[in-house]
Design goal:
Length: 530
Amino acid sequence: MKKRILSMFLCGIMCVSLLTGCGGTKESSTSGDGEKKETKTEVVKGGNMSFAIGGDLKSFNYSMCSGNDDSEMVLSSIYDSLCSVTSDGVRYYLADSMEMSDDATTLTIKLKDGLKWHDGEPITADDLIFTINYIMQNSSSCGTDILRVLVDMKPVTAEKVDDLTVKVTAPAPQASMMYSIGEIHPLPQHIWADDAKTDEEKSALAVGSGPYKLKEYIPGEKIVVERFDDYYREPGSLDTIEFKIIPDLNSRELSFENGDINFLRITDEQTLKKYKDSKDYRIFDKPEGRINFLALKSGGALGDIKAREAVVKALNISEIVAGVYGDSDFAVPAKSMFSRLSYFYKDKNTNYEQDLEDAKKLVTETGLDKKTLVYAYNSSRDGMEETALMIQQQLKEAGIKVELKGMDAAGFFQAQAVNDGSVDMMMSGYASNGEEFHSRTFYLSYTAGAMGFEMPIDVDAAWAETESTNDMNARKQAADKVFEAAKKAYTIVPISDTNYIAAMQSNYDGMDEYGLNTLFEDYTKLHEVK
């Protein structure tokens, strides 16, 4: 059973990656010298805001697109989750309350009364139970959501208590279940269980629960959503939100400056300075809650742990981050596997440290000086090529030859999911905000091992201890053991703890309400100002 689910999980990993009234209020803006200043603005009811995305959505079914940034950006305006759990705390949406049992095995979810789908049908416990079962039954196409319904690679069970209450039971203690289950975006059972319709027909209906509903979709051009006035919370301020399909990054910047889109992510210092120095833009600058890491595979030249140790000891992580990102505006060196937004982050954590002389000895001892390592990177993600070049140069100083292989997203994640010896190293990343949900893909022996990332079973035991109690202090102590056990394998090397920097035209605001999560969580906060 576990082997079958693990196979479906790896398939899912690949599928994921190929994939207003008026009133006075205080708003925060960034001045030319970079300081935050409080200015009085007036919220404007109505209007439109435009974002850029890289391509069409494969579906308007949230679970089928989970883990894809562009898809989640769009679909989070159409679907609400049960709640949001981040380092800032818990915010309830469709759920009225969520309660964990003392033994951390059962989560009782109470939905708000009076919830409606966009077609007017009521949202009930049946929809949530259907969604949990749907994700399990469609695991190969449901992206990262499959991880939300598995504990120790075994499925949770969902039981109806009454029309608004569901009890979810895990096969083992799982204190983080409020996050993993809580951030599921329920699907309407009356749509997705209708066998008379094809999946394409169901997707085209795009019936959701969020503050905006689908208005128009022109493939290859744009997706437009409009305010849902019968929303259970205060309706959104904007009349419409438009997601324009602009794959080319240079074209996005030109569209931003022309006013065709109103929000632009910034990835280099020169662009940041241009917009920061202008009064026409607001700068949004927050820790991203993401760790970029170097992973060493065991299927080829790095099967010997001493060979992996040689590679790791040759690296100067601070130098890599400084060389790729410049100053700390865009990233800081990772302290551990946990980002600054993780519940388990500690400033005193220590990452791997460079020991070049020891690295050289290990290179000779293991024969790495007679081999060429293949380093794969995702050429479509910012900073990956620059990071690869920095690492290639540092390893050269230790006597290790490295061949760089840039890949598109599809090829990269295909290579990540197999361990056939064709790739020795790769740069990847995971979200790390509040609970550690995404990092476990790479820090559990059975999931990491399936991809060729050797991880000792001591790591699994430490995770189990982290999940065994609701006491956060005890969980933090156990989480320290996870990273310390993982470090001994010399397999996953945390490199950078990144920031998310974006510019927004000055007549829009609301991004600072929940930090980065606003983009994927609560579109009611976005509004025009004057």
